[in-house]
Amino acid sequence: MSFGFVAFHYPKPEYVEEFVGRCHRVREVLTAQPGYLRAEVWVTPEGDAVVTTGEFGSQEAFQGAFAAIGREAGDAVVFDEREARPREVRTLLSRG
Predict the structure, then answer these.
(1) Rounded mean pLDDT of the chain?
(2) Which of 23, 73, 87, 89 is geometrically suited to a Cys-Cys bond with 41, CB 3.0 to 4.6 A?
């Protein structure tokens, strides 16, 4: 059973492109982790949210990958004044 996530991020308009770059940096770290299957970076058509999605072979792989982000790209995931409101993150389990 694979394990995934979807996260909605709300950067202030002047920081959207910078935030997208930060998300791609995180994706680069994820791709090197055991159990990584895929990750995507999306922007809503209105440009008011950056949405990240990812899939891992297991919950343990997901947890290990995000621990690696903390070590290798921690500054890219810090919530700060560039975001208009808190992130919304949901984890997912495949059923198929």
Answers:
(1) 93
(2) 23
The answer for residues whose C-beta is within 8 angstroms of residue 51's C-beta and 6 or more apart is 6, 7, 8, 9, 41, 42, 43, 44
HEC string for the chain: CCEEEEEEEEECHHHHHHHHHHHHHHHHHHHCCCCEEEEEEEECCCCCCEEEEEEECCHHHHHHHHHHHHHHHHHHCCCCCCEEEEEEEEEEECCC
Tokens 């995180």 sit at which residue? 26
Report how far Cα 65 is from the mean position of its chain's Cα atoms: 11
Measured over the CA atoms of residue 62, residue 31, residue 39 and residue 76, the dihedral's sign is positive
